[in-house]
Amino acid sequence: MDGIGPMLYEGKAKKIFAASRPDQVVQYFKDDATAFNAEKRGTIIDKGVINNKVSERLFKLLEERGVSTHFLERLSEREMLTRKVTIVPVEVVVRNVVAGSLAKRLGLQVGEAIEPAIVEFYYKNDALGDPLVNDDHLRLMNVATPAVLRELRDLAQRVNVVLKPFFAERKMQLVDFKLEFGVCHNKLILADEISPDTCRLWDMATGESMDKDRFRKDMGKIEEAYQEVLRRVCG
Ligand code: TMP
Ligand code: ASP
Fold first, then answer.
1. Tell me: domain 86-222, CATH 3.30.470.20, correct?
2. Could you say which ligand is closest to the alpha carbon of residue 37?
3. What is the CATH number of domain 7-83?
4. What is the pLDDT of residue 4?
5. How far is the CA of 36 from the centre of ligand 1 (A)?
6. CA distance 10 to 179
7. pTM, to two decimals
8. HSE of 20 in the Cβ direction (CA atoms, 13 Å)?
């Protein structure tokens, strides 16, 4: 790795830079936090460092368990070398417990267990506010074929089978999480990040949120919660 090249893309929480190899990129994790389609903005001190390390640990675990990811190597506190992929514009959400938008949309009781876990698709489009969509919508928009959607669902469930017990062993309930996938050499692989920004994690002892909900809902002690997730995941 001979240093990083020009910036290719800047998102809300990460920047993507060219790497020395054309088939690789560098993900740089920022401390910037947004919620509600960037209507709310702030900073979570050292979030970038924590999300980089937590993602590294979880991607390595998933690779060990046979789930292909874009992860190659953590380069520094805030930088991760990954395979270059074409991101599928679908946010794949897995839910083990009722919370967040599911509770609101369907009037279900927060905290109710969902068994077996459910998978939802959101169309990744900031201008539209990432709407919830079904398979037919995604097929209509030529975003994904039924075969690709079947594979996304299957991969998301496999990730859940690995992550749910991993977090439980560390006394955290994996309530729900969001995944993004990319295409690399005609194959779907897990991309983006898996972190307290993209998961709901509840402390099994106290029920307290240890994730970005603390920022979304102004609950305070955000940095402390992220540090504690890092300690339990990587410590
Ligand atoms: P939701 O209940 O707000 O739909 O969120 C479900 C999960 O997806 C939760 O773990 C947070 C995560 N998420 C993201 O990673 N990015 C987003 O933009 C949203 C809305 C949720
Ligand atoms: N990251 C998303 C945004 O800013 C929302 C969220 O995670 O709640 O819009």
1. yes
2. 2
3. 3.30.200.20
4. 86
5. 10
6. 19
7. 0.97
8. 4
Q: Whose CA is nearest to atom 8 of ligand 2?
A: 35
Distance 38 CA to ligand 2 centre (A): 6
Domains of the chain, residue spans: 7-83, 86-222
Contacts of 90 (CB under 8 A, 6+ apart): 121, 122, 123, 124, 138, 143, 144, 152, 180, 181
C-alpha neighbours within 13 Å on the C-beta side of residue 100? 24
**In degrees, to the nearest 5, what angle opens at C-alpha 9 toward C-alphas 4 and 13?**
95
Mean pLDDT of the chain: 97
User: How far, in Å, CA of 191 to CA of 71, rounded?
Assistant: 8
Q: pLDDT of 64-114, one tens digit each?
A: 999 999 999 999 999 999 999 999 999 999 999 999 999 999 999 999 999
Q: Do you find a cis peptide bond into 116, omega within 30 degrees of 0?
A: yes
Q: pLDDT (tens digit, 9 = 90+) per residue, 150-201?
A: 999 999 999 999 999 999 999 999 999 999 999 999 999 999 999 999 999 9
CB 195 within 8 A of CB 49: no
129 CA distance to ligand 2 middle (Å): 9
Does residue 124's CB lie within 6 angstroms of at least one atom of ligand 2? Answer: no
Out of 36, 39, 93, mutate this one to test ligand 1's pocket (max ligand atoms within 8 Å of CB): namely 93
> How many A from CA of 101 to the centre of ligand 1?
8
Q: Find out whether the beta carbon of 38 lies less than 6 Å from any atom of ligand 2.
A: yes
